[in-house]
Design brief:
With 479 residues, the chain is mainly alpha-helical. Helices cover 61% and strands 3% of the residues. The protein has 20 helices and 4 strands. Strands 1-2 form a two-stranded antiparallel ribbon. Helix 15 crosses helix 16, helix 15 runs antiparallel to helix 18 and helix 17 runs antiparallel to helix 18.
Length: 479
C-alpha cells in the first residue's frame, strides 16, 4: 500500500497552505490590555489594512449579534439609523451562527477547566470557523482530484495557491466551493439528482453554484440528455426551497435582506464600473436622485452577463467538438465576475477548482493567482489611506486591470482548447470529459452552425452579380 498517494500529498499541501491562510489573518485577532485588567481586540494603527489581514468574520461577530447567539434572520439591529438583518444566504447565515455557538461552548469549557487556552471570544470564533472551512476545502480538493483522473497532480494548483493564502478566510466562500465541487463530482459519476441537490444547497450558501445549471443545460441539449438535466434542475430547486422556505415564511424581512442589499449595492472596488468611475469621474453608474438602487447599473450588469451567457451557449452548441463541462462552467463564472457590479476579492476563489479542470496550465494560473494576492494587498493599503502609511487607490486600479487581463487570458485559453481539442491537455491525456458524467462519450443530437459557417453559407447563397455593361456593337439605351 502506497502511503503518499497523489491525493494525500495534495491534501497535505492544502493543509499547509490553509495554515498559512490562518496565519495571514491572525494579525486581526491580536489582543491588548483594556486598562481594566482584561484584554480587548487590538485593531489600532490601521491594523486590518496595513497588514492586509482583514476578514469579515471579526467585525461581523459583534455587529451581527453572533456573540450573543441571537437567531439569524429573526434578529435585527440598527446601522446608521437603518434596520438591518443578516445579509447572507440562509446556509451561510446559519453556518456563522452555528460556528459562533461552537465557539461559545469552547470558551466556556476552556474557562471552566483551565486545560485549554482562553482566547478572546472573537478569536475562538474565527479560528474554529477557519478549521471547519478548511475541512470543507479539503473535501473540494478530494472531489477535484477524483475528477482530474489521469492528471491528478493538476489538483496541486488549488492546493499551493497564493489566492488561497490571502482569501481562504476572508469570508465564507469555501462553503459554497465545497458544495460546488461535490455537485460536479456527483454529476461526473452519473448522479444528476445528487448533483442538483448539492447545487441547490450551494446556492443557498452563495449564489454562484446555480450558474452551473446553464452549462449543463447547453451540454444536455447538445447530447440529447435533457431528462438528466431536468432531474438535476428539479433537485436543485427542491433543495433550495427546503432550506429557504421556512425562513421565507417565518422571517420574510430577514430573508429578503440578501436580495435588498445586493440590489442597492453600488459598484464595488474590483469591478470595471468602479474603475471607470474613478478614472473618468463619470456619474453614469450612480443611483438616480431619490432612489435606493442604482437601477441603470443593475440593468447594464445583468444585460452584459446575459449576452455573455448567450454567446457561450452558441459557442458550446456550434463548436466542432462538444466542450467539456468544466470548460463551460469556467467561462460562465468568469463572465459573471467580469460583468457583475460586485467582484468582492474573495469571489475569485470560485474559479480555483474550475481552473484546475478547465485549463490546467500551471504558469498562467500561477500568474493569475499571484495578481489576485497583489490586488488584495494594494486594496487594503488604499483603505488605510496615504496619510496613514497607506497608498492611493491608483496602484490598486492598475493591479486590478492586470488581474482582469489575466482572467481574460485564461478565458481565451479555454476557448482555444475548445476550438482545437487536440491541444486540450485533458483530451490529450485520452479522456473525453472527466466531468461529463451522463454526457461523456455520447454523440451529438443538436448543434448550431458557427458564425464563420453562417458567414460562408451566406456568401455561397448570394446571387452572382449581373453584368449590365453593353456588349460589342450594342448601343447604350437613353431616355
Amino acid at each position: 500500500m502506497t502511503l503518499f498517494t497523489p491525493l494525500r500529498v495534495c491534501l497535505i499541501m492544502a493543509i499547509a497552505v490553509l495554515i498559512c491562510g490562518w496565519l495571514f489573518k491572525a494579525a486581526c485577532i491580536q489582543q491588548k490590555p483594556d486598562g481594566n485588567g482584561g484584554v480587548t481586540l487590538d485593531q489600532g494603527g490601521q491594523r486590518p489594512w496595513i497588514t492586509a489581514c482583514y476578514t469579515d468574520a471579526v467585525p461581523l461577530y459583534g455587529s451581527h449579534k453572533l456573540n450573543t447567539g441571537d437567531l439569524p434572520y429573526a434578529t435585527s439591529w440598527e446601522d446608521n439609523g437603518q434596520v438591518r438583518y443578516m445579509e447572507y444566504p440562509v446556509v451561510t447565515g446559519f453556518w456563522m451562527w452555528a460556528v459562533a455557538g461552537i465557539g461559545r461552548g469552547y470558551d466556556s469549557f476552556a474557562q471552566a477547566t483551565g486545560v485549554l487556552p482562553v482566547p478572546l471570544n472573537v478569536a475562538s470564533y474565527f479560528t474554529i470557523g477557519a478549521i471547519l472551512l478548511g475541512f470543507v476545502y479539503l473535501v473540494a480538493v478530494a472531489c477535484t482530484a477524483r475528477m482530474a483522473r489521469r492528471r491528478v497532480w493538476d489538483t496541486a494548483i488549488m492546493c499551493l495557491s497564493p489566492l488561497l493564502v490571502v482569501h481562504a478566510f476572508t469570508n465564507w466562500d469555501l462553503l459554497s466551493i465545497g458544495f460546488t465541487a461535490g455537485a460536479m463530482l456527483a454529476w461526473a459519476r452519473g448522479k444528476p439528482v445528487l448533483a442538483g441537490a448539492l447545487i441547490g444547497l450551494g446556492t443557498a450558501a452563495k449564489l454562484y453554484p446555480a450558474l452551473l445549471l446553464g452549462p449543463l443545460l447547453v451540454l444536455c441539449l447538445r447530447s440529447g440528455r435533457m431528462p438528466e438535466w431536468a432531474r438535476a434542475a428539479g433537485a436543485a430547486a427542491i433543495a433550495w426551497l427546503v432550506v429557504n422556505l421556512p425562513i421565507m415564511l417565518l422571517y420574510p424581512q430577514g430573508w429578503y435582506e440578501f436580495i435588498r442589499l445586493n440590489s442597492e449595492r453600488p459598484a464595488e472596488y474590483d469591478s470595471w464600473y468602479f474603475i471607470t468611475t474613478t478614472l473618468t469621474g463619470t456619474t453614469l453608474w450612480d443611483k438616480a436622485p431619490g432612489t435606493d438602487s442604482p437601477s441603470f447599473l443593475n440593468a447594464v450588469s445583468l444585460v452584459l452577463f446575459l449576452v455573455a451567457c448567450a454567446a457561450i451557449g452558441w459557442f458550446a452548441l456550434s463548436a466542432r467538438r462538444r466542450p467539456r463541462f468544466a470548460q463551460l462552467a469556467f467561462l460562465v463564472v468568469a463572465a459573471f465576475l467580469l460583468t457583475n457590479k460586485v467582484w468582492s476579492p474573495q469571489y475569485s476563489l470560485w474559479l480555483l477548482p474550475l481552473a484546475v479542470l478547465a485549463v490546467p496550465r500551471w504558469r498562467p494560473l500561477l500568474f493569475w493567482q499571484a495578481s489576485e494576492a497583489i490586488v488584495w494587498v494594494l486594496l487594503m493599503l488604499s483603505f488605510a489611506g496615504v496619510s496613514n502609511k497607506g497608498l492611493s487607490i491608483y496602484p490598486f486600479i492598475g493591479a486590478a486591470l492586470v488581474r482582469d487581463a489575466l482572467v481574460i487570458t485564461l478565458v481565451v485559453l479555454v476557448v482555444r482548447d475548445v476550438l482545437r481539442p487536440e491541444r486540450d491537455p485533458i483530451r490529450m491525456a485520452g479522456d473525453d470529459d472527466p466531468t461529463g458524467g451522463p454526457i461523456e462519450n455520447t454523440p451529438d443530437r443538436f448543434t448550431l452552425p458557427s458564425l464563420p459557417a453562417l458567414w460562408a453559407r451566406r456568401r455561397t447563397a448570394a446571387p452572382e452579380p449581373v453584368d449590365t455593361a453593353p456588349g460589342p456593337g450594342e448601343s447604350v439605351p437613353t431616355s
